[in-house]
Amino acid sequence: MSLTQALREEILAVPEGVYAPHCFKFRAIREEPDAAPQRIRANMIRALFSEPKPRILPHDLIAGNTHCLFALEEEAYLAYAERIVNMLGRRKFKTNADHYAPDYRVILSKGVPGLIDDVDRSLERHAHDGKRVETLKDMRITLEGFSAMIAHYADAADALAADPAYDGERLAFIRGNCRALVSGAPRHFAEALQLVWFCHTAFRMEGRSAMALARIDQYLWPFYKKDVEDGILTRSRAVELLENVFIKIVNDTVNICVGGTSPDGSCDVNELSYCVVEAVKNCRVPGPNLSARIMPGTPDDFLLKCLESIGTGLGYPALMNDEVNLAGLMRYGYAREDVYNYSMVGCIENFITGKQPPWVDSRFNTPLYLDYVFNNGVSQTCGSFGLALGEAESITTMDQFMKNFEAQLAWGVSEHCLDIHSRTDMLSQEAVNEPFLSCFCHDCIGRGLDINNGGSLYPSVHGAAVMGIGTVADSLAAVEKVVFTDHDATLAELRDALNANFEGYEALRDKLLAAPKYGNGDDFADKYAVWFLNYISGCFSRRRTRDGGPYYVLMAANISNISAGASDNATPDGRLRGESLSDAASPTHGRDHLGATVALRSVSKPDYTKSAGGTVVNQKFSPSAFEGDHLRALAALVRVYFKNGGQELQMNATSREVLVDAMEHPEKYGDLVVRVSGFSAYYVTLGRDVQYDILSRTQQE
Amino acid sequence: MLLNISNVQHFSLGDGPGIRTTIFFKGCPLRCPWCHNPETISPQPAQLFYKATGKREVRGMSVECEALLPELLADRDYFAESGGGVTLSGGEVMLQSEGAAQLASLLCREGISVYVDTAGYVPYANFERMNPYTDTYLYDFKTASETLMRTVIGGDLSRITDNLRRLLADGKSVRIRIPLIPGFNTDDESVDGICRALGGMGIGAVDLLPFHRLGSGKYEAMGLTYAYAATQPLRGEPLDALRRRFERDFTVRVEQ
Predict the structure, then answer these.
(1) Residues in B touching A625 (Cβ below 8 Å)
(2) Chain A residue closest to B81 (CA)?
(3) Fewer CB within 10 Å of terminal CB in chain A, N or C?
(4) Is A597 helix (H, G, I), strand (E, B) or coil?
C-alpha cells in the first residue's frame, strides 16, 4: 500500500469519543467571563487551537487534522458546553462563514510571526480608536493560539519519537517544519505547504467547510522552484507531499485552482501545476475539488494532463474558461491584478482571492414564474403568489407572453433579494466576529476591522443560482411553436393541460415534446437561453448586498434542480409535475441528443460574462473517449467550446454499464467517484434519484 | 442528388482522426451476422421500438446533398481544431457512390476532409467515382477465407481483395480495419490467413475492432434475434494476444 493510501485509512479511522470542538472552546469562556462577546469568541478560538492535543498520523509528512477535537467528557457536560458556546452566536454559510479563498501569498511571505507583527503595527496606528484596538487584539489572540497549535505539533512529533508505530525520519521532518514555522516565515516548499495546511486545518477546527486552497500552483511555485534549483526537492517528492495533504480532505469540498492567466496575458501554468493535477489524480478521493483555469495559451500537454485525470473516472479537474471569467469579473470594477488572481470556492464559484467576505448564494427557481404567467400569479403547486397580470386567455401573442414572464421574473428577483436581506439582517455584523478568518483577508488587519464589518477590501457578493435554463428555454420554444406558430392549442388549453399534469392532454404533450429543444444547435430554442441569461442578469445587476456589493448570477445549483423540480408545476416543455429541472447550465437531460459538438455549440451561445459567479455544464463521455488519440479530440472540443464563449465544462467518464452495475452491486463500487453538478461524490452513496439523474444525462460517444 | 441515409452522428471518435461527423448510409450488399448497425442493412426505413423507454425511431430518410451540408459545416471549427472531418459510413456507402461523391465534392470544396468506411463489395467503377474526393478509405477486411466469406457473409472475396489492390495501386490512402469476431476470425488459422493476405499486398498498419454487443438493443428494438447476443465482448487477455499476433506483421491500433 502506498504512503498516501495508508494515510487515507488513518484519517478515516475515527478516534474514540465525540467530535466536540465546543468542549475546547468552552474552556476559555471562564477566563474573561465579563468581556465583550467578541473577546470571548476570540478567546474561544485561541483555546480551540491551543488546547487540544495534536494527533500526528503514522504516515503524515505534512501534519494537521481534526482528530484532536474528539473529547471523552461526559455527554451531559458536552451538551452543556455546546449550548453555552452556541449562545455566543455563530455564522453559517448563509451569513458569510465559509466558502472562502485566502490569499496564501500573504502569510507565506511573512509567516505567523510576521502576521502578528502586522497586527501590532496596526494596533499602534489605530491606538486612538478603541473599537479597532479591540478588534485587532481579538485577531492577535487567535493568531497566538494558532502559533501555539503549530508548536504543539512540533512537541507531539517529539513525544512520538519512541513510538514504534511511527517512522523517525517522518517525525523529524514534521518537527523541523513546525519549529521553523513557529519562529518565522517558511523557507522551503514543505514548510510552505505545512503552513497552508495548518491554516486550512484551523479553519476546519473552527467549523468552516468548503474553504478553498485557491491558487496553490502559484503561491507555492517560488518555494518549489528554489528547492528544485537547490537540489533539495524533486518533482516526485513534491507530488508525494501534495498527496499527503489532499488525501486528508474528508467530508468537505475544497476547491483547488491551477493554471490561469497573468495580468500581462501570459499563461500561469508551471511545473507545479502538473504536480497538483497528478497528486489529485493519484489520491482518487472526492474532497479535493480541482479547477483548471484554461486560456488560449494553456499548453496542450497541460490540457491533456487534465483530461487524463478526468478520464480516470475522477471527473477532476473542472475546466474553466479564463477569458470568460476574467471578462465577467472585470464588470464589477475590481482592480485588474485582483481579477487575474481570482480562484474558485465551493464547487465552481468565482471568488476574488483573499479580498472579499466569504461567499454566499441562494437558489432562484425560475420555472415557478412560468406558473405565475399561466395562472394569473398563483402557483398551482407551491401555494405562492406572483403578480396578477391577467388570465392566460388575455395573452394573445408570444410578445405578450414574454412581457408577462419578464414582469414576473423582475418581481421575483426583487422578492428574492428582500428575503436574502432579511436573513443578513438577523445577524448583527459586529457581534459575531471572525477574528481568525479576518487575518486572512486584505485589509482587515490594516484597517482594524472584521472581515464582515468593513475589513475586506471589497464588499460581500451574493450569488443568485438561477435554475432551469434548459427547462425555461425548452418551455418558451414549445409555447412559441405549439401555441403561437402552429396554433395546435390555445394558451388557455395549455394552462389546463399543465394544471392537469397533462392527464387527458397526452397528444398536446407529444406536440410540446416534439418542439425544438435547447442543446441541439437550433436557434428556435437556443435564443431563449440567450435571452434568459441576459434578462435575469439584468434584473440582479440592479440589486446590492447590505454592504453595497453586487449580486452575481450563476448557473450551478448542486442538486437543487431536483428538489426545486419536485415542487414545480408541469412546464410547457412537456416536463411533468415534480420532475427535475434542467441541471445547472446544461440542456435538459436527454434532450441534447445530437452529440457533444452540437450540444456545446448551443451551450456556448449565452453571454456567460453575465454569469460572473460561474456555471456548470455537465457532459458525460464514455471512458473510450479518454483513450489514445481520442484525448486530443476531446482537447480540441474544449478549445473550440471555450473559443466560442463557453464558461465551464465538467466531463464525466463513466460508462453506463458501470453505473448500472454499481446500482445493483454497490458493494463492488465503494470507490467509484462521479461528479454531480460541481462536486464529486462516491456514487454508491447517492440516492437512487440522483443515480438515475447521472444515468439519464445524455451519453455522448 | 438524393441520399438514402439512416442518421447523422456528431462528435464521432474512432471513425478516422479527430472529431468527425459520421453519416450512416442505408443499404448493404453483405450480411455479417454480428453487424452492430442492423438498421442500416436494408435500404427500406427501419422501425425501432425500445421497450424499456417506450421510444420509437424510424431509421431511413431521403435527403438532398445540399440540404445536408449546413449541418455538416456547423461543426467545422471542431474539425479544424482536431484535424477531423466527415466520415461516410453505413451500411455500404459505396452502393450510393454517385450521391456520396456529390456530397464529398461539396465537402472538399469547403476544405473538409472526407473519410469513407467501406467493406469494398461493389464494382471498382464506384470507387473511381469516389476517389477524387476521398481523403482516406477505412477498408474493412473481415476474413481471408473465400469459404467463410461466401457462407457466412454472403460475398465473393476476390472482389474485395481486387478492389483493395486497385485502390493501393491508384495511390489512395487506405486504412485497414479488422473486426475481431469470436468464433469467426479470431482462431489462429483465420488470423494467419488475414495477416498473409494483407502482408502480401504491402499493408503496413491495421486497426483492430474488437467485438462488442452494444448493438443488441437495436436488434431487439427491430424485433430481430441477434445471433451474437450471448457472445461476450472481446477484451482483456484474449484481445491482447490477438493484438500481439497482429503486431508481428503490422503497426496495430485497437479501436475500443
Answers:
(1) 13
(2) A636
(3) N
(4) helix
Question: Would the CB atoms of B10 and A629 count as touching at under 8 Å?
Answer: no
CB < 8 Å from B in window 502-521 of A: 521
A586 found inside a domain:
yes
Has residue A481 been placed in a domain? yes
Give the pTM: 0.92
Domain total in chain A: 1
Cell numbers given for A387? 403578480
Provide ipTM, 2 decimals: 0.91
Q: How far is B226 from chain A (nearest CA, A)?
A: 20
Q: Which residue has the cell 479501436?
A: B255
Q: What is the pLDDT along chain B (256 residues), one digit of tens a residue?
A: 999 999 998 998 888 999 999 999 999 999 999 998 999 999 999 999 877 667 788 999 999 999 999 999 999 999 999 999 999 999 999 999 999 999 999 999 999 999 999 999 999 999 999 999 999 999 999 999 999 999 999 999 999 999 999 999 999 999 999 999 999 999 999 999 999 999 999 999 999 998 887 677 788 889 999 999 888 878 889 999 999 999 999 999 998 6
Examine residue A230 and say whether the peptide bond preceding it is cis (omega within 30 degrees of 0): no
Q: Do B256 and A624 touch (CB under 8 A)?
A: yes
Q: What is the C-alpha R_g of chain A?
A: 26
The answer to the question of residue A603 being in a domain is yes
Q: Taking the CB of residue B44, how many other CB atoms lie within 10 A of it?
A: 11
Residue with cell 460475398: B155
Strands A648-652 and A318-321: antiparallel
Strand order across the beta sheet in which A614-615 lies: A360-365, A462-467, A551-555, A614-615
Q: Quote the domain boundaries for residue A408.
A: 360-615
Nearest to B19 among A627, A636, A701 (CB): A636
Within a domain: A204:
no
Cis peptide before B91 (omega within 30 of 0): yes
- How many angstroms separate the first and last alpha carbons of chain A? 35
Length of chain A counted residue by residue:
701
Q: Classify residue B210 by burial, with Cβ atoms within 10 Å: 0-12, 13-18, 19+.
A: buried
Which phi and psi angles does A320 have, rounded to 5°?
-110, 135
